[in-house]
């Protein structure tokens, strides 16, 4: 990670060290919440918020430039559109195989897993889409709001 | 009454004691820094003690699932033990940078001093 420039509020060794310690665990926990969304409390939105919060924490402790090294602005734009594309794509794919919109059991004709398994797995695909979209939108909102739209110098 | 439930009672009661001490300090101490000092220290220790007590209570009927739940509780305790002092440090540093003055004992009937 990058070194500090000058000492202002929120930029010191204790905060940086504990953020560096916590961010990987936060991200693994966010993925866990997304993947376990249909067995336990959680889901795409909550997991996406946790993943986005890890990047926001990085931006708060190390500055916006460092967080943009880990998630670049262009990657963020791609993820912004990829999340809704997964959601809509899965829904439209169901209609193409003869079901209703988001009727996952129709996808059984694409890969024969059985309609019940496809309902469970389809919910998982939707949750991944929602998680990706929420994560990138959260990060984008923080970047824009904290820099007045310039996306260069954060808080 | 197994040894684990005795341990759980001791841990949770000591956690409650530290929460009580932290709350009294938060209400009674004179300025921002000393209040934060009371709240930050006591709350992080008390949270860890209470979570350890819950983990011990949960292990009373032993199974692999209960062991997993206790391990997750100890993970929460470890993360609280890292993040809570860091949050206190961040708030204190922000106050110091913004120029909040620490409390000094004042003589006479000036505002701020509780006695003499």
Description:
The complex is a heterodimer of chains A (155) and B (116). Chain A is mainly α and 155 residues long. Chain A is built from five helices and no strands. In chain A, helix 1 packs antiparallel against helix 2 (44-62) and helix 2 runs parallel beside helix 5 (115-147). The longest helix of chain A is centred in the last third of the chain and has 33 residues, at 115-147. Chain B is an all-alpha fold. Chain B has one domain. In chain B, helix 1 (3-28) runs antiparallel to helix 2 (32-58) and helix 2 (32-58) runs antiparallel to helix 3 (64-98). The relative contact order of chain B is 0.14. Chain A binds chain B through residues 8-10, 12, 14-15, 18, 21-22, 25, and chain B through 79, 82-83, 86, 89-90, 93-94, 97-98.
Précis, in short:
Chain A has helices spanning 13-35, 44-62, 64-70, 73-96, 115-147. Chain A has 155 residues and is an all-alpha fold.
- Major sheet of chain B: none
Mean pLDDT of chain B: 88
Q: What is the count of helical runs of chain A?
A: 5
Number of helices of chain B: 3
Say how many strands of chain A there are: 0
Give the C-alpha Rg of chain B.
19 Å
Report low-confidence residues of chain A grouped into runs of 5 or more. Answer: 1-7
Which class do the helix and strand fractions of chain B yield?
mainly alpha
């Amino acid at each position: 990670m990058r070194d500090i420039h000058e000492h202002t509020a929120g930029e010191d060794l204790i905060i940086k060290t504990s953020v560096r310690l916590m961010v990987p665990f936060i991200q693994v926990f966010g993925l866990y919440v997304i993947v376990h969304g249909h067995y336990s409390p959680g889901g795409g939105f909550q997991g996406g918020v946790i993943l986005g919060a890890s990047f926001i924490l990085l931006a708060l402790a190390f500055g916006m430039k460092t967080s943009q090294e880990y998630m670049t602005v262009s990657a963020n734009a791609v993820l912004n559109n990829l999340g809704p594309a997964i959601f809509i794509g899965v829904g439209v794919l169901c209609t193409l195989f003869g079901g209703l919109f988001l009727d996952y059991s129709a996808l059984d004709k694409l890969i024969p897993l059985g309609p019940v398994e496809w309902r469970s797995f389809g919910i998982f695909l939707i949750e991944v889409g929602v998680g990706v979209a929420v994560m990138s939108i959260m990060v984008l909102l923080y970047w824009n709001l904290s820099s007045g739209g310039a996306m260069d110098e954060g808080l | 009454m197994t040894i684990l439930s005795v341990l759980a009672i001791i841990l949770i009661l000591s956690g409650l004691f530290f929460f009580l001490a932290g709350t009294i300090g938060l209400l009674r101490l004179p300025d921002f820094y000393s209040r934060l000092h009371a709240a930050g220290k006591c709350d992080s220790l008390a949270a860890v003690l209470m979570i350890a007590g819950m983990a011990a209570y949960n292990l009373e009927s032993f199974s692999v699932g209960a062991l997993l739940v206790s391990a997750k509780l100890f993970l929460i305790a470890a993360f609280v033990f890292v993040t809570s002092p860091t949050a206190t440090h961040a708030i204190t540093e922000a106050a110091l940078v913004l120029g909040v003055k620490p409390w000094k004992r004042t003589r006479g009937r000036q505002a701020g001093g509780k006695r003499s």
